[in-house]
UniProtKB/TrEMBL annotation:
BP terms from Gene Ontology: cytochrome complex assembly
Natural source organism: Rhodococcus koreensis
Name the UniProt record assigns to this protein: Thiol-disulfide isomerase or thioredoxin
Annotated keywords: Cytochrome c-type biogenesis, Disulfide bond, Isomerase, Redox-active center, Signal-anchor, Transmembrane
PANTHER family reported for this sequence: THIOL:DISULFIDE INTERCHANGE PROTEIN DSBE
Amino acid sequence: MSSAARWSLAALVVVVALVVAIWPRGDDAETPSYEDRFGAGGSTPTSVSADPDALAAQRTQAGLAPCPAPAAASGPSADPVLSGITLECVGDGSQVDLAAALGGKPALLNLWAYWCGPCAEELPYMQQFSDRAGDAVTVLTVHTDPNESSALSRLIDYSVTLPGVQDGDGRVRVAVGAPPVLPVSVLIRPDGTVAKVLPQPFRSVDEIADAVEQNLGVAA
């Protein structure tokens, strides 16, 4: 090979390397990290304004299960970690006192956001687990981004009808001491204390069932 040919080949290799380095990557653009969105502190605006009529139409289309209501029995004996946190129910816009609503029964809180890729894979498994567990475990999604309209759109796309609350300020994450990543599953004992914080995506319904049985003692 001549000297000129070798220089031409070297120049071509450099150009190709530069193109690869700057070419946009779809996964990176579509699935930012929690820190990219909110920073390590998780500070977020409270809400994103949405047209009330459009939001109502989305809620009707989504057909989410009702958020849990406070049990008729007396409250939990311990000091619930979610005490004092009241959030909006994504399904109907009502207010949910989390400590009261979750008291007296094992619960699984699934922290997610509409832009989170692993959350999209995990949520259908959460639905399957909830269907399997029935009344034995309360499964509640916690949307940790201010854009409630986008959350409803994603739930419609995923055919997930789990009850959920809107937590644009990340209050649940802070209360349970979860790291700034998504998804996160939080296992809550009937007395309102945290049994386990799992900052990981689940890959099957059996993985979720195993975690619940190991940390809450409930087989499903």
